[in-house]
UniProtKB/TrEMBL annotation:
Name by which UniProt lists this protein: ATP-dependent (S)-NAD(P)H-hydrate dehydratase
Domain YjeF C-terminal: 15-321
GO terms for cellular component: cytoplasm
Lineage: Eukaryota, Fungi, Dikarya, Ascomycota, Pezizomycotina
HAMAP family, sorted: NADHX_dehydratase (MF_01965)
PANTHER family recorded: ATP-DEPENDENT (S)-NAD(P)H-HYDRATE DEHYDRATASE (PTHR12592:SF0), ATP-DEPENDENT (S)-NAD(P)H-HYDRATE DEHYDRATASE FAMILY MEMBER (PTHR12592)
Enzyme superclass (EC): lyase
Task performed by this protein: Catalyzes the dehydration of the S-form of NAD(P)HX at the expense of ATP, which is converted to ADP. Together with NAD(P)HX epimerase, which catalyzes the epimerization of the S- and R-forms, the enzyme allows the repair of both epimers of NAD(P)HX, a damaged form of NAD(P)H that is a result of enzymatic or heat-dependent hydration.
Residues that hold ATP according to the record: 217-221, 236-245
Binding site for (6S)-NADPHX: 125, 178-184, 246
């Protein structure tokens, strides 16, 4: 095995073969937007990097259109990071809101965008401001009505913790908690998972939320929908800098966009994968890409690795796992 080959178990290789089926080919007949329209909702005044990393990872992996919906002061900053992202200053923090601003009125402008989108990522850089959180709660309700898939991460997970009815039983929802966030979610559901094997713990939390997909991040990523559980063990890097989870949410969102294209039969394929299984496979694909990005970036940067270094490795990681790498 080449030293540049990512290490993984045979079971991971087998699952990646299935993930590969949902990756669309590059065909002349496709038009702009068919391969994914993703929006990241977050970006408060203090946190502008997280939504950028998520949206750029989504774009670098191959979604056609990548949006950021954020607070106006965050929008001014994020627009300077890259001209490739579409940035919409629609969110409001309590400290900058006018007397006429309410969660429902602010959410209305975001909800009007939903017909133009395929997937939502809610949480990167969102913060705990009540108006921002309540606005997202309104958006989640509207997304559920439309049957849209969405990913909750970071402060977006606070909504699942404090308002579990927003996601309860919604199979198109994916939660991506780290160790601390996972413990909080378990506590909110009255689950005692201390000492429990990681895969079983992820399964129990998924069941408690009625079958949402849970990605328990850690040394290995455990992915469960309460009925089936995968472990993603592609070798990662050894530096745990902030912001690496944003690469996961962005790449996962692109896989969800590809899932929609697969289910709509936009290219010739065997159609052997169904919607529920494809959710877990999308999460697995996002995990594998992120872990390989981490490995590649750590190899170059070592202790100095930052989240932006993962962004630069997204395409290489994709090629290593799904195109130019070893036969899975």
């Amino acid at each position: 095995m080449s030293p540049d080959t990512p290490k993984m178990s045979q079971s991971t290789r087998d699952i990646l073969l299935k993930v590969r089926k949902m990756i669309p080919p590059m065909l002349e007949k496709f038009h702009k937007g068919q391969m994914g329209r993703v929006a990241v909702i977050g970006g408060s005044e203090d946190y502008t990097g997280a939504p950028y990393f998520s949206a750029m990872a989504s774009a670098r992996l191959g979604c056609d259109m990548s949006h950021v919906i954020c607070e106006p002061q965050a929008a001014q900053v994020i627009k300077t990071y890259s001209p490739n992202l579409m940035v919409h200053p629609l969110m409001r923090q309590s400290t900058h809101a006018s007397t006429s601003d309410s969660a429902s009125s602010i959410a209305h402008a975001v909800i009007e965008m939903l017909p133009r989108l395929h997937v939502l990522v809610i949480g990167p850089g969102l913060g705990r401001d009540k108006l921002m959180q309540d606005t997202c709660a309104n958006v989640i309700e509207a997304a559920r009505e439309r049957g849209m898939p969405f990913v909750l991460d970071a402060d977006g997970l606070n909504l699942a913790q404090t308002k579990p009815e927003l996601v309860q039983g919604y199979k198109e929802c994916i939660l991506t908690p780290n160790v601390v966030e996972f413990a909080r979610l378990c506590k909110s559901k009255g689950l005692d998972t201390e000492g429990m094997q990681d895969g079983r713990a992820a399964e129990e939390l998924s069941r408690a939320f009625g079958g949402v997909t849970v990605v328990k991040k850690g040394r290995e990523d455990w992915i469960s929908n309460g009925e089936r559980t995968f472990v993603s063990d592609v070798e990662g890097g050894l530096k745990r800098s902030g912001g690496q989870g944003d690469t996961l949410t962005g790449t996962l969102a692109t896989f969800l966009g590809w899932r929609k294209a697969y289910l709509e039969g936009l290219w010739e394929q065997d159609g052997s994968l169904e919607g529920v299984e494809l959710l877990a496979l999308a999460a697995f694909g996002g995990s594998a890409i992120t872990r390989e990005c981490s490995r590649l970036a750590f190899k170059k940067r070592g202790r100095s690795l930052q989240a932006s270094d993962l962004t630069e490795e997204v395409h290489v990681a994709f090629r290593n796992l799904f195109e130019d790498g070893p036969k899975l």
